[in-house]
Protein: Flavonol synthase/flavanone 3-hydroxylase
Amino acid sequence: MDQHGDCTSSFNSAMSLSDQGVSSIPQCYILPPSQRPGTYDHVSISTTLPIIDLSNLREQSLRSQTINEIRIACKEFGVFQVINHGIDESTMKDALQVATEFFNLPNDEKMRLFSDDVHKPVRYGTSLNQAKDEVFCWRDFIKHYSHPIADWIHMWPSNPSTYREKMGKYAVAAQVLQNKLMEIIFESLGLNQSYLHEEINGGSQVVAVNCYPTCPEPGLTLGIHPHSDYGSITLLLQTRSGLEIEDKNKNWIPVPFVDGALVVQLGDQMEVLSNGQYKSVIHRAIVNEDEKRFSIVSLHSLAMDKKIGPALELVDDQHPMSYKEFSFREFLEFLCCNDVSKGRFLDTLKL
Structure:
């Protein structure tokens, strides 16, 4: 049997294994003991991740304090949650509902969209990179390019019949929020709010809709392996807790579920652009024996071939340039050829 155990003979998604009621997981999903989700020490549990009320930005007296909270969150953690963010509750609920309906479709229907080509603008799959991963992730996903939406929506799933309408409405709202957040993050770095304005408007948005099915042996596997996102920022909407981030001391901290909030994660482009002042967050997803978890992840980056390097305003004698330029396409090339659990793309950019 090869390294993928009993997974290569016929493709079995994590969801179909869960639906079959397997009592143990196939070998190809089992992580080496050192990489399995462990038990927590009390230090990591007591860390409180910032929850930022974006409505405070409208109050002049609270604005600078809120920007400072964002600055500290970006430096310390690379992640924060936002409330009063402007996306309607009904838009979020509808998107999660239609995501659930999609994953409940018969396997044959979803498999029509299956691809292990990471360049495909719409693809259904499992794990991270089916062709390269030595250990698979216990998750199924559908990913689609989403901005500008008119260019891509006709390729999205047509079943369920309301998928394009409901997921499309959420994707557009996430794009609007991303523009606003980028302005605030730039301001927190001391850059002009309109820094890279055109490039961000013309940037890329990939929506990844994830299902983490129930798992009979959650201590042996992960829903997604530790990684950082390639882009500028990622917005995450989730149905329950399961996301964990790595702090500066290499402890894993659970990100609490806050109803109606969105998690904002910084990606590699933001670490490079800030010349290392802000960190892209390493994160993973754990799985659960009793409840499946859904998340909708909106990944934002500059356009496919747009090179991003440190902002020149943030480079001086005390802070020399610390990273090479890179583009989204170069990240995809890296993803094609590497098992990302073995090394970060970002490490290839450090000077």
